[in-house]
Design a protein that fits this description.
The chain is mostly helical. The chain has nine helices and no strands.
């Protein structure tokens, strides 16, 4: 079923997916704080009781929205890489792909701040406190939790192959690259860089991406 927009009600079909689409819309508007099961049910046009047949509560719904948002983040990265022109030089081509993936990462954060925050704010079990889990996961490219990281890691592997043996990639370069683009994204959304005009913001992004590409190479 297509995404539910404002004013439309649910009539038949896949109610679980309709609720997810409504919740993604809530996250788009206001981040993870807006994701509430009762509100998703209201937007779809069903009772909260019907919604609770598909989700145990807000935590399960928010986890599902986070999965969807992380898929959308990785899709943004892949679209950015697909738009990047190729190069006859394999090293240059690999560097351009890595930079484009990073650009797509930051671009998603800037263009979809609510979804980006939802992607990295999974609810914790009761009693564990707030915050997010920022640990670098094991590489499993088909899992939404790690697909963005896998794309960066694969791009770095390609860069290492194109450079070998002259300029190998530094150990843990994937985690370093992810840390750089994730940190920059947060600074642009919630930190001191959030008020930069578009031209200066783009300059900061491109400077950071250049540092990511050059910084991954071992001396």
């Amino acid at each position: 079923m297509a995404a539910i927009s404002g004013g439309k009600t649910y009539h038949h079909g896949d109610l679980r997916n309709a609720l997810i689409c409504a919740a993604v819309g809530l996250a788009t508007e206001g981040g993870p704080e807006r994701v509430v099961l009762r509100e998703a049910a209201r937007r779809v046009g069903v009772s909260p009781t019907a919604a609770y047949r598909h989700f145990d509560g807000r935590g399960e719904l928010l986890r599902t929205v986070g999965d969807r948002a992380r898929r959308m983040l990785a899709d943004s990265m892949e679209r950015a890489a697909a738009r990047e022109p190729g190069a006859d030089d394999p090293v240059l081509a690999a560097e351009r792909r890595l930079a484009a993936l990073c650009r797509g990462y930051v671009g998603f954060a800037v263009e979809q701040p609510g979804l980006y925050r939802a992607a990295f704010c999974p609810p914790r079990p009761a009693g564990t406190g707030g915050g997010t889990d920022a640990a670098v996961p094991e590489r499993q490219p088909h899992e939404p939790e790690v697909r963005a990281f896998a794309l960066l890691a694969d791009a770095l592997d390609a860069l290492a192959r194109s450079n070998a043996p002259q300029r190998p990639v530094r150990p843990a370069a994937g985690a370093a690259a992810w840390s750089a683009v994730h940190g920059l994204s947060l600074l642009l959304l919630e930190g001191p860089l959030r008020r930069l005009p578009a031209q200066r913001r783009n300059a900061v992004v491109e400077s950071t991406l250049a540092m990511v590409v050059t910084g991954t190479r071992a001396p």
